[in-house]
Amino acid sequence: MENWDEQTIKAFRKDLLTWYDQEGRAYLPWRVDHNPYRILVSELMLQQTRVDTVITYFNRFMKELPTVQDLAEAPEEKVLKLWEGLGYYSRAKNLHKAAKVVAFDLKGEWPESYDDLLALPGVGPYTAAAIASIAFEQVVPAIDGNFFRVFSRLLKIDDDIAKPKTRKVFYNAVEPIVDPERPGDFNQAIMDLGTSYMKTVDPDTLHSPVRKYNAAYRDGVEDQYPVKTKKKKPVLQRYQALVIYNEKGELLYEQRPKTGLLAGFWTLPLRPIDSIEEIDGEQLSIKPITHVFSHRKWEIWPVAKAVPTELKEGQRFLSVEEQEAIALPKVQHKILDKLKEQL
DNA sequence: GAACCGTGGGG
DNA sequence: TCCCCAAGGTT
User: Fold this and answer.
1) Which residue is nearest to nucleotide C7 (CA to C1')?
2) Which interval of the chain is the signal sequence (predicted)?
């Protein structure tokens, strides 16, 4: 691991921020000001999600719920509808809870320190540091995937970034490097660097504004950084989806459990099967609907069934209007698309 | 500390 | 088709 002296650190900050001022993504909608509410919403949306995807959601969200008070007072269903399709829906629920804490418990007074921000629901070490530095100029490194990648290469840090304890290694290494004058810009500059010259695949280090600080590039081992163990591949799960219409043409839905995958969302009733031979009813499709989550892969066979004599707990018929009014997970939209296709 | 939690894009 | 990934947090 490299160890920079004070002179190198100062030169690095200057080169980084000079580049950031000229070529950073100042146009991103959450960078127009340092409003902590806008920063909070953007950071929650950006967790494990690409910038290009988030921009549209962010602008719509801000138009509908411009202030933390608006969000705190909004019904959860509205928040989820604005989040529909973004995934990791606990983020939306936590964002809603955090807004209530700030607007009601704290009476609109924002927590400004890293530790106080960390106490908000959905706000972990990275997000707390991002908000503290960007909105409140607190001098803390916002260590996300970009930060890991950039500094693993610059400093040749060999620790596995998939391991939780590695965060401390990086924190100790980079804490002295964060610019005390412009901590928020420093962190955002690292992110911009990490998605441009120092991106994961096919980086362009030769033209990077901080090439001369890049120890991995210097030693010709840049492709070995960051060190990161691979994720396990999703496990296949087969279901049959019960397609049941009532006399009004409404479709039977079932609410998922309050915890776990797609918690609380409505989908067609899904029944686990071990093989397609177990399908019980009129098969509506020759090919299954497949949907991949981060750790599971669903294979779904739609099956027509008769109208039940009475509804079970957690079941109800939904009209088309009702289906469009509530947030549905992507996999349910895929099922609906397939059903339309069959007609 | 490992497993869980969504989705879409690109090679 | 499959694999990897992308501004992580919670349990």
Assistant:
1) A46
2) none
